[in-house]
UniProtKB/TrEMBL annotation:
Residues 20-364 form the FAD-binding domain. GO terms for molecular function: FAD binding; oxidoreductase activity, acting on paired donors, with incorporation or reduction of molecular oxygen, NAD(P)H as one donor, and incorporation of one atom of oxygen. Its cofactor is FAD. This is FAD-binding domain-containing protein. It comes from the Bacteria. It comes from Caballeronia sordidicola. Keywords: FAD, Flavoprotein. The keyword Membrane does not apply. InterPro entries: FAD-bd, FAD/NAD-bd_sf, RIFMO-like.
Amino acid sequence: MEKRMSAQKPNRHKTLDVSPVLIAGAGPTGLAAAMSLSRAGIPVRLVDKAPEPSPWSRAIGIQARTLELFEQHRLVEPFLELGHRARTGNLYSNGQRLTQLDFDPLQTRYPFLLFLDQSVTERLMTEHLETFDVRVERGVELIHFNQGSAGLEATLQHANGAEEHVRPSYLIGADGAHSTVRHGLNIEFTGKTFEQTFLLADLHADTEWPDDEFHIFASGEGIATLFPMGGGRTRLIADQRVAAQSPDAPDSLQKSAAPTLDECRELIARRIHHRVTVTNLAWSSYFRLNNRMVDQMRSGRVFLAGDAAHVHSPAGAQGMNTGIQEAFNLGWKIARTLAGVASDRLLDTYHTERHPIEREVLRTSSFMTQMAAAEHGPMKLIRDHVMPVLSAIGPLRDAARRTVSELSVQYRKSPLTLERGLDGGPRAGDRAPDAWVHVVDGPLGRAPGVGCLFDLHDPAYFSLFLMVKPSEDDDIALAPATLTVAHALRDKELDELAKSVEEALPNSVRVWRITDKGDDGARSLTEAYGRTRPCFYLVRPDGYIAARGRAPSDTQGLLRHCETWFGAGTEE
C-alpha cells in the first residue's frame, strides 16, 4: 500500500500593499473573515468593543460543512479533540419518539454534529489567526463610518476614549444582531419576534440515552431540547410562553433573574417524560427569538455577515455555521478584487449567492420551531403524523441530514458557475466533495502519491483538478517511484490546458493531475465524482466548484469563464 501524502502546510500569499479590510466584531463570523483574508495575503484589522472574549457557551453546534472548511484551513484537529460528537437526533411528541435522524450515512469525514462552547470556538480561531500575525483589537468600537467618492472612512473609539480615524479598503459588519454597521447603512432588519421567551441552561444531566444523541421534545407544555456536550454536560433549551414584547426588545436576558436549577428540573419533569436527573447548573439565561434578515448584504464597500445580516431560531444549529460560511464566501472575493485581478462585480455575487441561502434558513428554522411548539392544529398534525411517514422515505431522510449538516448548500444558479453538462457527479456550484485519489503530478514538482482531495486544496488558491482514467497497462498499486504515468496524462492538450489556466489565474491556481485510487474503504474519485473519462474541476478557494467540463474539449469555455470572473482578463 502506498504511503498517504501529508496535507499541505498552511500557506498564505505575500501580504499585499493595500489598506486593511476593517472587520467589526470578533465572533466566529468576523474571525472567519479575518482567516480567509489573511490566508490570501490581505491585511486586516479585527476590532471588537468587548474588552474580553465572552466566557459563555452560547452557540454550540458545529456542522459537518463548517468542519470541512476548518480542515481546509488546517484548523479542524483541535475542534475534533475538544468537541463532543453527536451522531443521532431524536424528535418526540408527549414522550413518544416520532423519528430519528442519524448522520452516519453522510459522505464526509465528519458524519456528526459537533458540540463545543462558542468561547472555545472563538479561542481556537483566534489562536489560528495569530499564526498570521493578526490579533483581535479588544475594547475598540466602530462608532461611525461613511463612504463617498473619496472612499471609505471610519472612526474607531478605544477603551480610553481616544478616537482613531481610518480609511479601510472595505468594511465587514460582523457585529451582531444590533449591528452598528447595519444601522449606519440604514438597512432595515425585517421580520418578526417569536411570542415565546426561551430558557437556556448549561448543566450536568444523567439520562437513559447514549451520550452521542441529542433530543427534541414537544408536548402540550412546550418545547424542551437536550444537547450533549460531553462528560455529562448538557445544554437545555425550552420555551416559556409569555406575551410578545416589542420587536425592538433585546434578543437575550429578557428577565431580571436567570433560570434556577429547580426551574429546570420542574420543566424537565413536565415535558420530557423520561429519566433525566440534572445537577450543577453552570450558566443559564432567558432570551427572545427573532426571525429577521436584511434585504441587501452589500452596500458599496460595506458588507454585512452573520447575525448582523440575519437572526433566527437555533432550530437545526444553523446560525453560527451560516455566518462562518458567509465569511469564507466573501473573503476570497475581496482578496481577488484588492489584488487587482477581478472587477467590483465579483463582490456583488456575495449577496447573489448567500442571500437566498439565508432566506431559506430563516424559513426552515421558523417552520421547525413552530412545528415543534404546536399544541394543536395543522402544525401538530404534521409533526405527529406526517413527519414520521416522510422521515421513513430514504431520499427524504438523506435530504434532511444533508440540509442540517449544510452539505447541501450550493450555488448552481450563481453567475460564477460554468456547467458543461458532464454525466453524474457534483455539478458546478456544488461543494467539492472529498475523495481518495492518486496524485500523478502537482504544483512545485510534487511527487506522485496517494492522498485525499481535501488535503490537496489550499483555500489561498483555486485548485484545478485534471481527472483522468489510468491506461490499462498502468499499475497504480506500485510504489510511487515506479508508477507509469497514464498516456492521457502526458497528452499535450492537457499540458496546454493547465498552462492556459495558470496564465488566466496568475499566482492564484494550483493544478493537480489525479486519477482514481480507492483504499481502506475510503470514497474513491469515481464514487465521489462519477467520472471515468478525462475531465476538469475548477474549485474556488472556498471549496465550491466554479466550473467543470470535459478535458481538453471544453478548455476555451473554461478560459473565458476564468478571464470573465476571476482573472487578469476581467472586464469592468
